[in-house]
DNA sequence: ATGTTTCCTTTATGCCTCTAAGCAAACTTA
DNA sequence: TAAGTTTGCTTAGAGGCATAAAGGAAACAT
């Protein structure tokens, strides 16, 4: 943190209050209630005043989303760090479980992050995208460390189209992972995150009321693909 | 179809035009552009006129969503019926592929159906819910027929919580399936539909540009769990 | 002490949903 | 066929939203 004058400090406080108010409205009344006007009204300000803090509704939404990403990231890192640095298996599983725990204890927030249909072109330097990448990296780094320390078996050959596509992504990661390992990582990611999204969006309510055991089953299926011992890190 | 007077016919035509206009706006300008006013304007009517056809914005959205479900259902049934009634394996795979094909050739529509956050309490007799159940049944019926004709191995024991939850759902289906089979069905469904949703919502754009081979890989992994021969029904 | 920056206000435009009142054409019925 | 009723639309209007513009007052810098 850079030292700031009083002016700057007050401004930061107001910014934080705006984001907190937006979050409260989201939780209490749903995403549609998070309007510039409503947030300002809650704070005892006039609507247009908020334009001194955010360029518009979309930027406010992006800032709040970034907050959620950061909070989720912190929670996951804390859960991960309850295990020693070398225990990549338990650390990864703890990270996954922390993600789901946060998601279901913060449904409106998680739904807001996930189910935001691509509203506009996403600039890669926006706070939202930066925080999103940090979130992604919690998994990626632990995964890469796991691969470093104890590589697991990967498919001998990949579908040519998949290989081609993943080559660019793998290179952009700069983690020295082989394409095949990245493919395994993404397969697991799709299963885990896909399940979570369906749960939070209520797409499975027709059959389930509590998806915790389904999530654990998913972890149990995924673990051996990474050479992990699920039973050794059961919940 | 019941015989109708001229009056009723004109009304049906206007209803159809409204839904078609709403769909066109969705495709051309995104979901936010589908407003009562915009639809009416496009049709050369005044806004409030639409309230003679739909009780409000939400009902219009529901009607359009039901249209999408019905169209998707028809496409899947047509693809399924290209295979003889007894060939449950190829019929199921064709149904899955038709679902994805429709989804990616109708991204706005599919995204609209899926990513509609639970906007209000859903009444189970609304057109949207009815059409949604028909869609669900295309998979369920073929799956039940497959089980009838050639039961596949199912897990010997289920997590007690999962078993308890699925008992109610299984009973409500009235298809005479065992709970274990329903569990296998839902596991496959979650993987397939979850992947599709992530694709359409752009959640995998960071790594993939074309998910067709990933989808096929998913089918290849799912098929043996249902006792199906993937290679015999490769694309 | 003066000028500038910052914060917030009110005002205004144009969009949205939805209600209400009213008119005219089309049907129904006596 | 004439009167009454239903239907399909209109305009008017209330209230909310995003956003732009203009202005006042306080805080800050010099």
UniProtKB/TrEMBL annotation, chains A, B:
Gene3D superfamilies assigned to the protein according to its UniProt record, in alphabetical order: Tetracycline Repressor, domain 2 (1.10.357.10)
Alphabetical keyword list: DNA-binding, Transcription, Transcription regulation
A Pfam family recorded for this sequence: TetR_C_33
SUPFAM superfamilies, sorted: Homeodomain-like, Tetracyclin repressor-like, C-terminal domain
DNA-binding region: 35-54
InterPro entries listed in its UniProt record: Homeodomain-like_sf, HTH-type_TetR-like_transc_reg, HTH_TetR, MT1864/Rv1816-like_C, Tet_transcr_reg_TetR-rel_C_sf
Domain HTH tetR-type: 12-72
GO molecular function, one term: transcription cis-regulatory region binding
Protein name: TetR/AcrR family transcriptional regulator
């Amino acid at each position: 943190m850079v030292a700031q004058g009083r002016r700057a400090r007050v401004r930061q406080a107001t910014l934080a209050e705006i984001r907190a108010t937006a979050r409260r409205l989201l939780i209490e009344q749903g995403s549609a209630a998070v309007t510039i006007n409503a947030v300002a009204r809650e704070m005892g300000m006039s609507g247009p005043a908020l334009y001194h803090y955010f360029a518009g509704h979309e930027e406010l939404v992006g800032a709040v989303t970034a907050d959620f990403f950061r909070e989720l990231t912190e929670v996951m890192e804390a859960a991960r760090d309850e295990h020693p640095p070398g225990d990549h298996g338990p650390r990864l599983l703890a990270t996954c479980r922390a993600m789901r725990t946060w998601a279901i204890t913060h449904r409106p927030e998680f739904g807001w992050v996930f189910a935001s249909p691509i509203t506009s072109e996403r600039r890669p330097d926006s706070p939202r995208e930066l925080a999103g990448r940090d979130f992604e990296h919690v998994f990626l780094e632990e995964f890469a460390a796991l691969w470093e320390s104890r590589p697991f078996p990967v498919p001998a050959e990949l579908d040519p189209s998949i290989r081609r596509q993943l080559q660019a992504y793998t290179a952009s990661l700069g983690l020295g992972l082989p394409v095949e390992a990245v493919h395994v990582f993404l397969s697991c990611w799709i299963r885990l995150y896909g399940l979570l999204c369906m749960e939070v969006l209520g797409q499975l309510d027709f059959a389930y009321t509590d998806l915790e055991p389904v999530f654990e089953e998913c972890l149990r299926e995924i673990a051996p693909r990474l050479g992990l011992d699920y039973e050794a890190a059961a919940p």
